[in-house]
Design a protein that fits this description.
The protein has 381 residues and is α/β, with parallel strands linked by helices. It folds into two domains: 192 residues, Glycogen Phosphorylase B (Rossmann fold); 156 residues, Glycogen Phosphorylase B (Rossmann fold, 3-Layer(aba) Sandwich). Helix content is 41%, strand content 17%. The chain contains 14 helices and 13 strands. The strands form two sheets. It has a seven-stranded parallel β-sheet, with helices on both faces. A six-stranded parallel β-sheet has the order 10-9-8-11-12-13, sandwiched between helices. Helix 1 links the parallel strand 1 and strand 2. The radius of gyration is 21 Å and the shape is globular.
């Protein structure tokens, strides 16, 4: 589905965004790539998104035919076209190491095409990924590390935690830590009532800890507050487990399924706090969205989560009991919630502004292309 609109490419750069997930929405990677690409278009960059998947557990909306996204099979012909028609390839990689992303990397190296690799997950993600049970997973990681170290590419990730983790697996190149930006809607709902005590927003999976969240709710209901009301947003492989758990234990929970990212903010507005129980995360934008809405966060102290929460929430262990205690300490104390999120929206606006992130991306793109031109001419060291 090629975009038929003419783009005024005032920056003179043609960029291909490549990943293996639904191209518009779904998870943090998908939303990030799509929104950044839209902003780049507005800034006069000719950008296209290439993905091998149209749908997932999290996303099943029909993709508009007039969009600038392309669902392709990872064939030699399709990948060769990407390499030929674009100045720069930006590969958005997870440690599922899916086929399109890794094959495009191979072709970039083969044809000496400048490329960027953005790591959106940490190596700890492997135990929850599609390669978790593969006997070749360690070799697959070693090969990716070897290719990156030998190529003329730039490596990006989105938290100091993941800089350290990527370094541990052997990446020797300089790693750019680029703060993630979010893009809140301009118009928010006028509804001000906090209908729900807690909210869970994310994929319904073991990696995102939906089981921990539900067990914490049960402990909270049985030991602290018997009328706890929760909101659950998202979809995924653990949906059936979640529904059975809620019915079996008669939890007071409202399940809305997957909703578009722009609508997440208004739903968070109706909640007292966000509970983020992910077992691994690089830098969850859901936390930024909650803080933008001045809602404190209870989260597991793992990965890059502390960098996102800062001092605007409570970090706990993965024990449902500890999480329940942290939830109760906030939902039972209005003043504590207000004080803990004081200035949180201003912090998000300052440090996690989408426009600032686009400026950083553009500087990286232009710098890589310029350096590559010098390298090809033989003038670089």
């Amino acid at each position: 589905m090629a975009d038929k609109r003419k783009i005024h490419n005032k920056n003179g750069i043609k960029i291909a965004m490549v990943h293996d997930y639904p191209p518009i929405e779904g998870g943090g990677l998908e939303i990030h790539v799509y929104k950044c690409s839209r902003y780049l278009l507005k800034r006069g960059v000719d950008v296209r998104i290439f993905s091998s998947r149209e749908f997932s557990h999290n996303f099943s909306y029909k993709i508009p035919k007039d969009n600038f996204v392309n669902i392709i099979k990872p064939t030699k012909k399709n990948i060769s076209r990407i390499i030929k028609n674009f100045d720069l390839i930006h590969i958005h990689l997870t440690f599922s190491l899916r086929y399109l992303s890794t094959r495009v990397m191979d072709y970039c190296i083969k044809y000496n095409k400048p490329f960027i690799v953005s790591f959106h997950t940490s190596p700890d993600h492997i135990r929850f990924s599609r390669i978790a049970k593969s006997k070749k997973r360690c070799e697959m990681v070693r090969q990716i590390v070897k290719k990156i170290n030998k190529s003329h590419c730039i490596v990006i990730t989105y938290s100091e935690y993941n800089v350290r983790q990527i370094r541990k697996i052997g990446i020797k190149k300089d790693i750019i830590h680029l703060p993630l930006g979010i893009d809140p809607p301009f118009v928010l709902s006028n509804k001000t009532g906090e209908i729900y005590d807690v909210a869970f927003v994310g994929e319904l999976s073991l990696m995102k800890g939906i089981d921990i969240f539900l067990k914490a709710l049960l402990y909270l209901r049985n030991n602290y507050k018997n009328d706890i009301k929760s909101l659950i947003i998202g979809d995924g492989p653990q949906r059936k487990f979640m529904m059975n758990f809620i019915c079996t234990h008669k939890l007071n929970a409202v399940y809305k399924g997957y909703i578009r990212n722009a609508n997440v903010y208004n739903n968070l507005k109706m909640c007292k706090i966000l509970v983020h129980t992910s077992r691994t995360d690089v830098f969850p934008t859901t936390i930024l969205e909650s803080l933008y809405m001045n809602k404190p966060v209870v989260a597991i102290n793992v990965g890059g989560i502390p960098e996102a929460v800062r001092n605007h929430g409570v970090l706990t262990s993965s024990s449902p009991k500890s999480i329940a205690k942290a939830i109760y300490s906030l939902i039972s104390n209005n003043e504590k919630r207000r004080s803990i999120t004081y200035n949180s929206r201003a912090v998000v606006k300052r440090f996690h502004n989408m426009r600032n992130q686009i400026d950083m991306y553009l500087n990286i793109y232009k710098g890589l292309i310029k350096n590559e031109m010098f390298r090809i001419r033989g003038t670089s060291r």
